[in-house]
Write a structure and sequence with these properties.
The strands form two sheets. The protein has an eight-stranded antiparallel barrel, surrounded by six helices. A two-stranded antiparallel sheet has the order 6-7. The chain is elongated and about 70 Å long. Strand 2 and strand 3 (70-76) form a beta hairpin. 40% of the residues lie in helices and 30% in strands. With 270 residues, it is α+β, with helices and mostly antiparallel strands.
Length: 270
Amino acid sequence: MSALPPATLEGWYSLHQAFDIDFSSLRLLAQVERREIISEAEGLLAALNGEAGEAGWSAVYRIVGGGADVMMVHFRESLDALSDVELRIKRSSFGGLLKPVYDYLSVTEAGLYHATAEVAREHQPNSPGFQAAIAEHAAADAAGPHIRTRLYPRPPEEMRYLSFYPMSKRRTGQDNWYVLDVAERNRLMREHGMTGRRYAGRVFQVISGSVGLDDWEWGVTLFSRDPLEFKKIVTEMRYDEASSRYGEFGRFFTGVRLEAGGWSDLMGGG
């Protein structure tokens, strides 16, 4: 079998936005103006989350370290809907106090490595028979609750902590992920996935693909009740060959969800 790309299923578009808050400008405002901006921020973000309904959600996390004050995380059913969210924040008075630090655009993804490897054993890649068999597998997988949770993720409310990082697969010398046989990539990803499954109920994982959308190839968003779980799962997964040999990682952002009324505490509403 050749270095065949895996079939994928896609769900919600995702935008991660990291900002610094312009506290210097905020301190120059009269208390009444500061309260108005904080009220606008809380109202806008509550509206964005509520309006999304079953087609996504938005949340804000106070970043600890990591070179940013807050990270806004948005999931929507289309790129147009994400663009609208981004524009509404920029146009707000509150948005004028946010200094962009980092952003990441992606779409939730489930890679069908096993199905692709299985079908490639029976059909010539990209032949009509291959395409029909892949479509059949994809339709069956898309209907399953496990895959739907991956494509349309809603982490448990009590998982207040977030860790986000981007990653890519290495493509240098003998460690070029993209020249590996599809069966070998399936083996490696299966091993990697088994490690992640051991953290079920402790860490809620969201994998989003960004090839052609952003500088890195995947975004990984982790949610948990206990931030130490982030250290444990990432450490353990680094020892999997898919990661230790083929993984490259970007910067990490870790924080805690900002609850209703949290903007006042964060921005000194008085």
